[in-house]
Specification:
Radius of gyration: 19 Å
Number of helices: 6
Shape: elongated
Distance between the termini: 68 Å
Structural class: mainly alpha
Length: about 100
C-alpha cells in the first residue's frame, strides 16, 4: 500500500506544480461545462503558468493525469488540441529578394 500512497503524493505534487491555481482540476468538477468555458479556463491557466514550468511538458502531464480519466470531457478535448503542433500558414509572405524574384 505504501507504493500506491507515494504514487498519489507524487501525482498531487506534479499537479500542484503544473496547475498551481487548480484551474484545470476544477474545470473537471463543474457540471455542464462546455467547450467555450474550457477554452477560457485553459487560456487563463496558460497565462498564469510560471515561466520556469515547461508548457509542453505540463500539457503532456495534464493529459496524462486529468484527461485520460475523463476522455469525453470538453477540457480533455481542449488539452489534447493544445498539444497539437501549431498550424503553419499555407501561403506565407516572402520578403526580401525571394519576394522580388519571378517564380
Amino acid at each position: 500500500m505504501m507504493g500506491r500512497k507515494s504514487k498519489n503524493d507524487a501525482r498531487k505534487a506534479r499537479l500542484e506544480q503544473i496547475d498551481p491555481n487548480g484551474l484545470i482540476r476544477e474545470s473537471y468538477r463543474i457540471a455542464g461545462i462546455g467547450a467555450p468555458e474550457c477554452r477560457s479556463i485553459f487560456l487563463d491557466w496558460a497565462l498564469r503558468l510560471p515561466p520556469e514550468v515547461d508548457q509542453a511538458g505540463a500539457l503532456a502531464d495534464l493529459v496524462r493525469l486529468c484527461a485520460e480519466g475523463a476522455p469525453d470531457h470538453p477540457m480533455s478535448d481542449i488539452l489534447r488540441e493544445a498539444r497539437g503542433a501549431p498550424a503553419r500558414p499555407v501561403d506565407r509572405r516572402r520578403g526580401g529578394r525571394a519576394a522580388r524574384r519571378a517564380r
